[in-house]
Design brief:
alpha+beta; four-stranded antiparallel β-sheet; about 20% helix; binds zinc ion
Length: about 270
């Protein structure tokens, strides 16, 4: 059922991030399409993760009406981890699901994507998350036993650094390199006393490069609701964005669930990235 929908690309950290898209039963090595023409044609309907087909997602949320209001995947604490309560045994929408999701090691990290930001991630997802956000550098700050604690640390650090990526800035080029070890040491001072024990001594900085020939000058975001037939020369991939000619960018992640045709010009044997 989800065979024909667009979805988040798989990203793998190599010298340059390697992207893969699984659609129509085929795995596309996206890096090999850079410099080639790519076409995405939307069929005019979407499928929610519960399997419901419709013309559009409820409130452009990526969910149907029922999932938006009832699924633990779309609950408030997904967007605001500081509202997590499973560690206290308090249910939000589905305590069993929430316990599995929240009561597991989480990390607080610092990343440089469009300037420094603080973020949180589950278990070993760090590198995947950084690549999805288009970060160029990242470092782990703390490891905590549940999602709520990571949310509490993030809230404390939000007074000093951003907690969201400015995607327009992220897509406009490679950010200036920063000394994340020094910034981690400066921010660690502001971690609340109760959580200081979770600060990690490991100061490994992960550096990430993306396959991009040319960054857009004046970014135009293309959405399938308005442009159901998208065709253009692929000039790069960063985060979950495809960068096309004429300064157009396409967010793959925000089109998850869109039933679409996906086609490319024959990829050359010699790939650029
Ligand atoms: Zn649904």
């Amino acid at each position: 059922m989800f065979r024909d929908t667009l979805k988040k690309m798989d990203a793998e950290l190599k010298d340059c991030v390697q992207y893969k898209l699984d659609i129509h039963g085929e795995v596309h090595q996206m890096n090999s399409y850079i410099g080639k023409t790519l076409k995405i044609n939307w069929a005019g309907f979407v499928i929610c993760c519960c399997g419901k087909k419709m013309d559009a997602f409820y409130r452009s949320s990526g969910y149907c009406y029922k999932c938006y209001w009832e699924s633990p995947l779309a609950s408030q604490s997904i967007f605001k981890p500081e509202l997590c309560t499973a560690h206290l045994g308090i249910e939000e929408r589905d305590l069993e699901w929430e316990k599995k999701f929240q009561l597991a090691p989480h990390y607080v990290y610092l990343a440089n994507s469009s300037g420094i930001k603080v973020g949180i991630t589950r278990g070993s997802q760090g590198i995947v998350r950084w690549m999805d956000q288009g970060a160029s550098q990242a470092i782990l700050l703390a490891e905590v036993p549940n999602r709520r604690f990571s949310g509490d640390i993030e809230i404390a650090l939000k007074h000093f650094v951003a907690d969201v990526t400015n995607w327009r800035k992220m897509l406009s080029g490679v950010p200036a390199s920063v000394d994340l070890v020094r910034i981690k040491q400066e921010l660690a001072v502001h971690v609340p006393a109760a959580f200081k024990q979770y600060i990690l001594a490991d100061n490994t900085v992960t550096e990430i490069k993306y396959p991009v020939i040319k960054y857009p000058n004046k970014i135009k975001s293309v959405k399938l609701e308005r442009t159901p037939n998208l065709a253009g020369k692929l000039l790069g991939i960063k985060g979950q964005y495809l960068l096309f000619d004429n300064d157009r960018v396409f967010n793959m992640r925000s089109h998850e669930g869109f039933v679409s045709e996906f086609s490319t010009e024959q990829a050359s044997q010699v790939s650029l990235f």
